[in-house]
Every structure is written in C-alpha cells, then in structure tokens.
Amino acid sequence: MSSSNSAFLDELRSKIDIVNLASRYLTLTKRGGNYWACCPFHTEKTPSFAVRENGQFFKCFGCGESGNIFNFVMKMENLDFWSSVEFLCKMYNIQPPTQQENEQLAAQKKERELMYNVLKHTTEFYHNNLINYPNSPQAQYLKQRKINAEMIDKFKIGVSVNFDDLPLYLKKQGFSTQDMLTSGVVGLSDDGQRLYDFYGKRVIFPIFNGFGDVVGYSGRSVEVSPDHTKYKNTNQTAIFNKSEILFGYNFVRDLKKEKLLDTIIIVEGHIDVISCHQVGLTNTIGCMGTALTQQHARKIKQLVDNVIVCLDGDSAGENATYKAIETLKSVDLNVKVVRLNKAKDPDEYINKFGKDAFVEELSNAIDCVDFILTDKAKKYDLDVNSQKTRYVEEALNYIAKFSSPTEQEIYLKMVQQMVKIPLDSLRRQLMQINSNHSKPANEEVETNEIVSNKNILDSKIMLLAAIIYKKLKNFEDFSGFFNADDELSSLYKFVAEKLKENQNFAVSSLFDQFDIKNNSTLDKVINYVFPSDEIFNVQLQDAIKQINKYQLKQEWEQVKQQMISAPTQQQQYEYLTKLQELTKRINEIK
Predict the structure, then answer these.
(1) 0.70 exceeded by the pTM?
(2) How do residues 360-379 score in pLDDT, each as one tens digit?
(3) Between the CA of residue 416 and those of 284, 368, 372, 398, 434, what are the distances in Å?
(4) Which fold, 104-233?
C-alpha cells in the first residue's frame, strides 16, 4: 500500500466514528463501555454484537466476526475493500483522493470498471447468440436440459458457436487486446498472432457477484472429445475469486433483503441450481463443482443459520458432502443432508419425479451427524468385530467433532443400537476422544509445561493489550519479549514502529494489517478486558516477571546444552559460570 493510500485511510478512520456508522444499520444500546445490537451477520435473539468506541472496531461474540469501519461496510454491502472506501466517502460526503494523490486506488478502480464493462458486453454477445444460432448444438443442449426462456433470461445464459466471433465483436466495441486478455475472455495462440474465444463452442453460464454483476463464466462443452474438457472456468482475476463466489448467491441475497430467507439449499452444478430455481426453489446456490471454502461458509453464515446439502450421489459427490459438512459446521451452521438415491443429482431428480417429490426429499433432510453415522455404517459389516471396532472409532470421532455434549448422548444411543455395545463403554471411549481433542498435538509435553506455556501466552497478551491501548508508556523496554517468529511479535513490531514515529495510532487500523480471526491470539489482544487499575497494575507486574523468568529459563536450558557439548574443559567452565549467573537472576525474581 502506498504512503498516500495509507495516509488517506488513516484520515478516513479518524473522520468516521464506527458507532455512528453502525447506528445507520442497527439499533444500538449503550451498556458498559460498549454499544450492543443483535448481530447483522447471523441470526440471534440476544445481542452479542459489540461496537467499541474505544478502539473503533466491532466484535460479535456469537459468530466471531470483527473488524473496523471498512470490514463492517464490506460485510454489510458485500463490497471489496476499495469499493468500501468509495462507499464510505459517498456516505459521509468525504472527498476521495484525486488520481494524482492516489494513483494505486485510481488504477485498481479503473481496472475493475474496465473488466466489468468487458464482461457485460461479452455476456450480451453470448446471450444474443441464442437468438442468432437457435439450431446450434449449444442451443439445442439447453432445450434438451429443459431450461425455459425465463431461466435463460434470469441467469443470462448464452452460447459460443466458434472461436473467432467474440474477439472481433469486442474489438468493434472499442476494447483492446490487453483489455480482453486481462478480463480473461480471450486467449492468445502459441505464436502470439491470433486471439480466440476462451470459451469457444460452449454453453456459457455467467457467474455473478453479490450485486448481480457478471465476474466470470463457466463454459460447458457439448462435444465429447479428449481435447475439449467438459467445463472451462474463469481463472482468478481482480474481480473473480472462486474461493468466495457461489453460483446464485446474488439471488439468495435478494431474498434475505426481502426477509424471505430461512434456509439455503446447496447443490453442486449450475444446471442443478437453475432447475431448482425453475420450480420455485430460489433459495438454492451452487458450489460449481469445487470444494466449499471457509470464505464460502462465512458468506452463507451472513445470510442464514440453516443449510441443506444436496450434492451429487456419486463417489465424488459423497466425498464433497463430507468435506462440505466439516466446512459448514466450522462456522456454526446447522447442517442437514439429502442423499438422492433415485437420481444422480437434483436436476435429474426434478425432471424424473417433479418438484413435489423433490420438496418431499428436502423436508426429510436429516441432521448431518445422523447422516454420517448412518452412511458410515453401510461401509462396514457390523457382525464382524474388527469392522465394528473401526466403525465405532470413526463414528465417535464425528460425534466428538460436530456435536454439543447434549447431542452427544443422543448420538451415542444411536450408535449403541447399531453395534450393540454397552452404552457406558461407548461413553468412556467418547470421553477419551473428547479429551484427546482438547490436548495439544505434542502429547509428550508435560502438564506443568502446558500450563506454563499458557500462562506465558496470557501474560504476553495482557502486556501487548496494555501497549496498544496506551496503558504502558515504556513499550520499548519489552522488545526482547517479542522477538519470536509469531503473530504477537509481528503485532508488537508494527505497533512499536507506529509509536516510535509518534503517529496517531488507531487500534482499528490493525484490521487492515492483520488477519484477525475469531478467538485467535490477536483477537484476544484487541478484545482484552481490563480489570480495575489497581488490580491491573498488580497483574501486569506479575505478568512481566513471569515472562522474564520464563525467558531466562529458556536461556538456561540452551546454555546447559552448550556446556554438555563443549569440546574443552575451559569452554565447559565458561558455560558453567554463565549457568550460575542465570540461576541467580532466576532466583531473584519472586
């Protein structure tokens, strides 16, 4: 980020109060030192969304979302970072930087606008081809799949019938070769002499962002050829990130705005989404054949708490279902699963049996843990002890991972009925698994060392919180505590540099520099709750002593190892002298 960018963002942060911004979207109630509201990013009845005037950031203690003014607008309006900057400038009538003052911002904005424009014309070209070439194999494919005119218009579906027409068309619209290449709609031949349609001779499914702008394409081949892959998708661009885009997300977002959304149905392919919409199930989105990511899951969580996963019934779909469950559960979504036994995917099922039958399948969707326990059991012969043992271990691991303590008892009884093992035995095994899940990866670490390491981490968190909230002035005295290659040290170095330069350092700026995830170490620093000054001063002095003592002990261990491996008696004596000095310093710390 250029210095002009950074200066302007700092200015914007200083002019816009996050309490004022949040109050434009939410009803805030002052309680204690914070303002509270029901979180806009997940469904809740009891307010857990805190807006901190001191620090100028928000934090939801329910879903874990946090950030500054830019993150808030990005999430509320589904914008990228620079679009959120422009949005805030307009909202607060702040003059954005000129092109001369901020060339990077202007260049990024220009590139995005150009790409949107190229894709807009490209989409119109493909869509019009359906009219111009109604008998093409690509147009006939859409008829065979029974996609009606309303859906073709809604999803702006089109066709490409050759490799040459699109580049010629875009050139006539005034776009340069570089414009087309940057936007990802054309390719360049190996000899560099010929532009060709990147999605040539395919059915074209435009991919939309949350606002309904086309940001990429998925081209479906109707030819059977080893040289012509079935699907060809847009590569990563400035406006297209496949880890964040979900097919049909713009339509479910509109339903959310109209308060008509309670549950989202997740299917695999474009045709599956379109078929569901065609029969009125407009709360359906698609993962476009790729694995669901954490970004996908968080975007879904912003809209609903409940999802139904209905992926393809083949082995790949089965694996995708298990991975999807794990990803969706990681953001605390309530996940149900439908496994279609009479068809390979939702599109085929709807065409064979109709909407009502498919809706019936959805209404009978089962809880994801129920699904896993039942589905896994089919792969084992539970009359064979060795296979029964493997099933129990696998089943209990899923129960431990995805269930609350109350739910675990229900699922244990379900497993017990299948394997006929005493319930108390299963409970003991589950308790052991739960215990293992809570242990650190290195099980050889002794308990007292685990406790010690946790205490040191807590002490460093307190110390760093005191520095960023300016409860300590002599921050430079503690540089030796933060010289490791970890998040806390990175945060300390960033803050120390700002304070050394006497800059007007804002806690909210940390969200622009660091990836602050829910319940992470950095999250604990920023959201540190200080006790009364009297108690805090005592705790802080104790924390400083603990860190200092811990580091001296670490140094003592290193010197001991050096003494053991020293090649001469003289060197051994020198190390021994150093050990004695370190022991004295350690003992002096009470």
Answers:
(1) no
(2) 999 999 999 999 999 889 88
(3) 36, 18, 15, 15, 18
(4) DNA primase DNAg catalytic core, N-terminal domain (3.90.980)
